[in-house]
Amino acid sequence: MSDQVLDTAVSPEVLAIQQKHLRRQKLNRASTYVIAILISLWIIIPIYFIFSMAFTTQEAVRAYPKSVLPIIPFSLDTMRFFMNSEGIIPGLINSIIVAVITLLLSTVIAAPAGYAISRYIFPGRNFFRLSILAVRAFPIVVLSIPLAVLFIQTGIFDSIYSLALMHTALALPTTILVIGSVFASIPYELEEAAMVFGCTPWQAFRHVVLPLVLPGIAASAVFTFVLSWNEVFAASILTLQNRTLPAQILFSLSNSSEAYQFAGGFFMLIPALIFMFFIRRYLFNMWGQVTK
User: Fold this and answer.
1) Helix (H) or strand (E) run with residue 59 in it
2) CB neighbours of 260 closer than 8 A, spacing ≥ 6?
3) Alpha-carbon distance 132 to 114, whole Å?
4) Contact, 242 vs 251, CB < 8 A?
5) How far, in Å, CA of 147 to CA of 150, rounded?
6) Residue 158 in contact with residue 238, Cβ under 8 Å?
7) Is the pLDDT confidence value at 3 over 70?
8) Could you tell me which of 119, 117, 106 has the C-alpha nearest to residue 209?
9) How far apart are CA 223 and CA 272, in angstroms?
10) Which residues, at least 6 apart from 115, have a Cβ–Cβ distance to it below 8 Å?
11) Cis bond leading into 65, ω under 30°?
12) Element (H, E) at 171
């Protein structure tokens, strides 16, 4: 009887099915790797090309057909030319100030809002979360034009502080959801245990929850900084003399050389590249909370 079972288990038909299944698994895995490599190349090649053009001589940038490092000489000539161009240093300073103000305002407002959404259950909670996200769906022009009129009437038009308020309004919805997902990943039982041992709710939050969520809040702050750093439409409408770096680059783009364009493109890429390394795992956490 056992011999018959063994013969049946290793029959040619079963072996053929198993081999076919293994081949299909290998093919699916190979296809996944190929697609992942193609997507990676689609993203990395343009970034590397911009990097090569930004860190070479202006003659190499103007040459055709263009080559990339290490074939072309490595040089800081193009970046020096870009940094010495008119309006770049003031625009860089304005961008940093606006981004830092936006970061601080968004974090101060989004942290308690995210904590409330993740910890408290109240009627309309899910609708409230969707409403926060729906605000981000409004086109920037819908907000920028009325705000430009309001800022002119109140005397704060063409100010980096008014632009920071605009960027805060744009960043808040996503920042609240990201910070809320970070709080949701911390079990509430930890706070309850701290209060059982004599902590007040504030002490439990400060000594137990806050150290655990600080990396997530920092990642959210980096996201807010990058969003403000890259925003160009509202900056172009709400500023004339006090332009941020993206608005200044956009204003000069039509009359600029290739060296200016490549160096400006790479300069604008730097915060986004840093952002990807800091916040990617917290975005995955947020996706997990949304799909639960």
Assistant:
1) helix 58-62
2) 81, 82, 85, 252
3) 11
4) no
5) 5
6) yes
7) no
8) 119
9) 8
10) 179, 180, 183, 205
11) yes
12) helix 160-184
What the block records as the tokens of 170 is 């744009």
Tokens of 81: 């030319």
179 neighbors 217 (Cβ within 8 angstroms): yes
Residue 157: C-alpha distances to residues 1, 149, 225 (Å): 91, 8, 22
Residues in the chain, overall count: 292
Look-up of token digits 């909370």: 289
pLDDT digits (tens, 9 = 90+) for 236-274: 888 888 888 888 888 888 788 888 888 888 888 887 777
pLDDT-based confidence at residue 285 (cuts at 50, 70, 90):
low
Question: In 24-71, which ranges are E strands?
Answer: none
What the block records as the tokens of 70 is 């290490």
Query: Distance between CA 248 and CA 253 in Å, rounded?
Result: 8
What's residue 290's pLDDT? 41
